């Protein structure tokens, strides 16, 4: 290893490598970074030359991380998070607000709740910019823990002592069925009646899928999931096409869909809680504190009595 070249490794090199490491795919990393595939390839190969270590290997048609690549990704996360913490702490101590706030949020919160909160925050801080990343609740928490987001709106409670967690509101879960389905005329329905039906669900690892599976378990059965999706709006599109039924959060009622009927589930435990999560360092920032205060206000306004 040429020690003189190790000193040439920059934050930009590490950020590019981490983008590749997340996907193990040059094309997806290039799309995320808005650069060419060749730029990412040169960046990874350049890091290998500087370190004198092979970081990736060809596996059939795929390029995947070697052990050294996984080690570098893990350590690079720590380095970049430490850099962010240093900047955040300095800005907090000086009383200056964030100029760029990085938001991670779940799909179901991205079409009404989160935009409403951010609109009020930017009204109070006109110079503020946002970078939003929409994902599953699990991924939103992971992004926060990796230091790639300042705050996360999620329906998953992360068991991590390094995260400040504020419950914002609790809402019911609803059964969604195709428009015209006879069961859609009911005021409420027990999921036990749906045990023979096909279900459409969010992908494995998502909190929405967990809520669906748990609700069915309380009704005494395991749902027969025949369609997996990565977006709740696609879930309802599949339901509307007659591919099955599903369970969605009350917030989906903010978005009219003439192809489906949503109705209450006869189970008081069928609900979810939405949280705002951020790091203890972020709690010192005036911008994060103001965001949290606004989110709490909007959460109280949204809180609905559970049936």
Shape: globular
Provide the succession of SSEs.
Answer: HHHHEEHEHEHEEEHEHEEEH
Strand content: 15-25%
- Fold-level CATH name of the largest domain: D-Maltodextrin-Binding Protein, domain 2
Enumerate how many helices there are, as a single number: 10
Q: Mind summarizing the main beta sheet?
A: 7 strands, mixed
Structural class, by secondary structure, is: alpha/beta
- Overall tally of structural domains: 3
- CATH-assigned homologous superfamily of the largest domain: Periplasmic binding protein-like II
CATH class category of the largest domain: Alpha Beta
* Overall pLDDT metric: 86
According to DSSP, the number of beta strands is 11
Give the name of the CATH architecture of the largest domain.
3-Layer(aba) Sandwich
């Amino acid at each position: 290893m040429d020690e003189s070249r190790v000193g040439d490794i920059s934050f930009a090199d590490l950020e590019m490598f981490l983008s590749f490491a997340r996907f193990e795919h040059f094309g997806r990393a290039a799309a995320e970074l808005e650069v060419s595939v060749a730029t990412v390839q040169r960046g990874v190969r350049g890091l290998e030359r500087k370190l004198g270590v092979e970081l990736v290997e060809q596996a059939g048609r795929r390029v995947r991380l070697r052990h050294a690549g996984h080690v570098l990704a893990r350590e690079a996360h720590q380095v970049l998070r430490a850099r962010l913490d240093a900047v955040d702490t300095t800005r907090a101590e000086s009383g200056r607000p964030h100029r760029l706030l990085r938001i991670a949020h779940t799909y179901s919160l991205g079409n009404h709740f989160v935009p409403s909160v951010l609109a009020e925050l930017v009204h109070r801080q006109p110079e503020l910019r946002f970078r939003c990343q929409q994902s599953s609740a699990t991924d939103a928490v992971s992004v926060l823990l990796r230091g790639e987001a300042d705050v996360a709106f999620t329906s998953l409670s992360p068991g991590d002592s390094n995260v400040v967690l504020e419950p914002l509101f609790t809402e019911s879960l609803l059964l969604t069925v195709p428009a015209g389905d006879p069961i859609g005329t009911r005021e409420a329905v027990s999921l036990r009646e749906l045990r023979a039906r096909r279900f459409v669900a969010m992908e494995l690892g998502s909190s929405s899928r967990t809520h669906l599976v748990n609700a069915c378990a309380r009704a005494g059965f395991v749902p027969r999931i025949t369609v997996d999706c990565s977006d709740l709006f696609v879930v309802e599109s599949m339901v509307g096409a007659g591919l099955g039924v599903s369970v969605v959060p009350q917030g989906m009622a903010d978005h009219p869909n003439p192809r489906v009927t949503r109705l209450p589930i006869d189970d008081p435990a069928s609900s979810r809680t939405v949280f705002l999560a951020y790091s203890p360092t972020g709690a010192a920032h005036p911008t994060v504190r103001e965001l949290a205060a606004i989110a709490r206000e909007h959460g109280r306004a949204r809180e609905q009595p559970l049936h």
